[in-house]
Amino acid sequence: MEASISAALNVSVLAMGVIFTVLVILIFTIQLLVKLIPYKAPPAPPARAASSPSNQDDQVAAITATLASHMGKRPDEFRIVNIQSH
Question: What is the pTM of this model?
């Protein structure tokens, strides 16, 4: 019984030593890569062009016509109040 406990302890200590050695190697490898290949932030995405009022009016007219056609009503029977784009 004593031999198996000491063997288990030896294997545990050896396994922990290997694990920590690999972790230390990984830490130094990552630090070396950070110094050799520094992080560069990606460029900011271009700003979206704001819709001009005439373009938005055209969109509202197209949406109104589509809804009127779908609902079987005349476009002057309802009014679109708010359009939110995502």
Answer: 0.44
CA 14 to centroid of chain Cα atoms: 41
- Does any domain span residue 46? no
Domain count, the chain: 2
Rounded (5°) CA angle 35-36-40: 80
Range of the domain at 35: 1-39
CA distance 7 to 76: 89
- The reply to whether 86 falls in a domain is no
- 59 burial (CB, 10 Å; 0-12 / 13-18 / 19+) is middle
Query: Among 53, 50, 85, 72, which residue's Cα sits nearest to residue 61?
Result: 53
Tokens of 67: 């809804």
pLDDT in tens, 22-31: 999 999 999 9
